[in-house]
Protein: assimilatory sulfite reductase (ferredoxin)
Amino acid sequence: MRVATGKKRYGFHKKTACGSIYMQLFVTLVIIILSIGKPRATLRIWNEEEANTSQSFCCYPQYDPTESRTFSSSVTRHWCSSALLGNPSSQGFVQLGSGLRGPMAASLGAAYTVVQNDPKLRIHRFNGLKLSGSVVLSRQLNVLYDSSASGKSAVRAVSTPVKPEIAAEAKRSKVEIIKEQSNFIRYPLNEELLTDAPNINESATQIIKFHGSYQQYNRDDRGVRNYSFMIRTKNPFGNVPNQLYLAMDELADQFGTGTLRLTTRQTFQLHGILKKNLKTVMSTVIENMGSTLGACGDLNRNVLAPAAPFTTKDYVFAQQTAENIAALLTPQSGFYFDMWVNGEKVILDDPPEVVKARNDNSHGTNFPDSPEPIYGTQFLPRKFKIAVTVPTDNSVDIFTNDVGVVVISDDNGEPQGFNLYVGGGMGRTHRLESTFPRLSTPLGYVPKDDILYAIKAIVVTQRDNGRRDDRKYSRMKYLVDSWGIDKFTSVVEQSYGKKFEPIRELPEWEFKSYLGWQKQGDGYWFYGLHVDNGRIGGKMKKTLREVIEKYNLNVRLTPNQNLILCNIRSVWKRPITKALAQGGFLEPRYVDTLNITAMACPAFPLCPLAITEAERGIPDILKRVRAVFEKVGLKYTESVVIRVTGCPNGCARPYMAELGLVGDGPNSYQMWLGGTPNQTTLARTFMDKVKVQGLEQIFEPLFYYWKRKRQAKESFGSFTNRVGFEKLKVWVDNWDDGVLKTRAQYNLKLFADKETYEAMEELAILQNKSAHQLAMEVVRSFASSQQNGKGE
Structure:
């Protein structure tokens, strides 16, 4: 029954109607025994002189005494006396519910007299989390006091609403339950991998993400689901040893779709792996200096850092820091190696500073004696992303991460510490304004020796406070946004054990692609190759493998889905350039500037979240943008940052683009404008439901007015922000294609002989272009370089 506080009081009496005093005591003790393990009442104790001043206490686990709960039908009340408060001399009154009245109340009164005078039966005062007396209870006694309690109280107690013995748990998402029951990310995946079915069940699908894999099926196939798996590697700062690259290349051919996919987080993805081949593929990656552990799932993902193999102190330090952070936050319970290499750990031991920081529990950050000292059984509420970089270098999209780490050096170039930024993230949900992309907020500065402890404190704050009931709001950006940076900072500092120093001032950021030939600083060169949408296949893949294998080159993957060949001797430059050109790789100076900064997620056919095309659609979109550029008179060297995703989750970071296209329906995009080339400004929604067939109707007026009304050297994104979306929409709505007359067409003969045409056509096919388009790009790029005095 539901119990509420009433007004009628029944007094304790020294005389009773139940026989001897010992009989009354016996009855009372029976009530107490029966009450143990039952739902219990909170007793409100009133000062006799002032009934509005009160103290309350309850037995067993703490709870809010203001909430109303249902009593057990068998025992409706606990007994109470001032002895519970260590005040045996107080007289008091207790209001009872309907289940205890008359003679029984009198019995309780007599029992109270005996209890208060017999020290053997008295329950002593509760001090903090320990009892000062020697009374042993079957459960721990917790007492909750009202802050308004009077110091002198003759005991008057009234019942208040109660909770059941086991308080209702906070709501948790289904994934949280799966993690809890998984035996540290093992079950039921370990069982599902042994079945003959081509797929795994829902719980195992969630668990395998922590191992670096997603279950997928080809959505182009109608009427049947042909299941396969994608695996993603984990490569801090995009570092890929020669041995691992060759292994990944071979695995793609033998077990995958024959292509390698470079991701926007400096990793590989292999698609199309059958369930029966998963263990072979995973173990091969591990045995060749690689890992997929934590590339997906609710934990720290791959740690970004500039991929360029410069040997300057700041770049080397940034990359070492990325490796150490990745090691710090790598799961420790062994589930990964148990699953794929029969428990054999085949990776190098962590640096001692990483082990020390991980094991440090001086500020209560760890789960003592747990196989996962930082993550526990539940890991994090959602994915967690970290990037490290040096001042000016925003090749990593630093402000889109949960944590951004920037190396701060002294005047001699010696690293001294780090600026920290928190709360960035891209994912959102269409038509749900409470979800949003967010740029990170400055947190503070830490000395270089403290970076691992500061990162751990941030992770623990998200672990303990991030939402676990609704995964749409589980990223740390929502915690930072709801708390505000001041409260967030204060809580992190409790786990860090120190105050953050003020953030250090930084120079302007710029996007760096690191394409082309550049000196490393140690006598060697590196060569940055542009890879459209990060997809390497066919002749390009074969040629790249031959070059990497022949010259024993290490590789770096960039956050812009490109690839860097490292440690190249000067004498190798010419033959490598020639071989790669023959394999279909254009020299970066010949790549369309639109393509250099463009990105797209895989989307169809394998991503289960895709709403429309992205990777397969962006080549045509870029061609159409270039055609509009030509139509409105923009130069070939001019560009805008264009990013396309098939859904609003934002894997290609479209909300940072000058022109972002986010799938919101079949062949339809939500258009975002206002990002900047250096990736420091968040774009905003400009239009919804823009059909892919009608993109030119939006592109033409936007680029036309940008060409004619921009300020000196003003980027397209900055122009849209300055002019304002209201005016831009007026221009789009009033656009008449007749304003622009088609420019004169020139029928130039580009090819003097058939052999040249066929060679150009072969290269063009690899780039998904016509021979004429490719030839025009090369000619224009060459003419532009001559005009700028950069011709060779």
User: Anything to note?
Assistant: Confidence is low (pLDDT under 50) at residues 1-20, 37-165, 740-747. The longest strand covers residues 415-422. Residues 771-787 form the longest helix (17 residues). The chain is about 30% helix and 15% strand.
